[in-house]
From TrEMBL:
Main location: cytoplasm
Residues the entry annotates as binding Zn(2+): C124, C127, C144, C147
EC class: transferase
Residue intervals of the Adenylate kinase active site lid domain: 121-156
Positions that bind AMP: T29, R34, E59, L60, V61, G84, Y85, P86, R87, Q91, R154, R165
GO biological process terms on file: AMP salvage
Recorded catalytic activity of this chain's protein: AMP + ATP = 2 ADP
Protein name: Adenylate kinase
Binding-site residues for ATP, renumbered to this chain: G8, A9, G10, K11, G12, T13, R121, Q193
Function: Catalyzes the reversible transfer of the terminal phosphate group between ATP and AMP. Plays an important role in cellular energy homeostasis and in adenine nucleotide metabolism.
Amino acid sequence: MLLLGPPGAGKGTQSSNIAEEFDVEHVTTGDALRSNKEMDISEMDTEYDTPGEYMDQGELVPDAVVNAIVEKALTSADGFVLDGYPRNLEQAEQLEDMTDLDVVISLSVGEAELVDRLTGRRVCDDCGANYHVEFNPPEEEGVCDECGGELIHREDDTEQAVRNRLEVFEENTAPVIDHYRERENFVEIDGEQSLEGVWNDIETAIERKA
Ligand code: AP5
Ligand code: ZN
């Protein structure tokens, strides 16, 4: 399964639900890259020497780095939900060589809501669980409900970086969504609903298409 959408659409939140409910692996390039922010990629002849330098500004990490991560993760996964990839047409082409997809889900959310969601997001530093100070607060402020870890504000969730991520999305990733839109297994879901509303639509879509 593939979950597409702009930054802040709820891909991470809902992919975790899918992984749990349908017993598949959650493959997320964002988390994989965050665990490797300091990796030395200078040998690949890239503009910057580490993924982190691209990420903190909201720029895309070079395709060669990301493609290798996804290829490795998909080879070892039985079933999967992919979140954060493909982000441009070149990556979509690579993915086609790696695997087939049963369902492609696109979450649509307007820009003002995306900015509110991302600037208010808090993420567990230990297990990666997602919260929002207003829309999805933890039971105890700053503490993860799942594992007791510390909740942090991502460096690319400042308003400036968020605006840049949205521009990068429009330019590179919106064409990927249009590319899948014509497929029979494509479903567009209104991501501005409540968390439960979005989840209900996703469950229905997967049960129908998969
Ligand atoms: P990545 O981590 O993938 O970030 P993203 O795509 O910008 O997506 P987010 O994680 O910000 O948002 P999300 O859609 O998962 O929303 P979430 O569920 O958290 O990528 C980060 C960086 O890594 C990129 O900028 C790039 O540099 C690099 N990168 C990653 N993949 C790459 C690739 N393939 N190629 C090149 N570079 C790559 O929800 C957001 C907030 O809203 C949360 O607080 C949540 O609680 C809340 N929320 C969710 N749903 C709802 C709802 N229905 N109602 C109210 N609040 C909600
Ligand atoms: Zn946690």
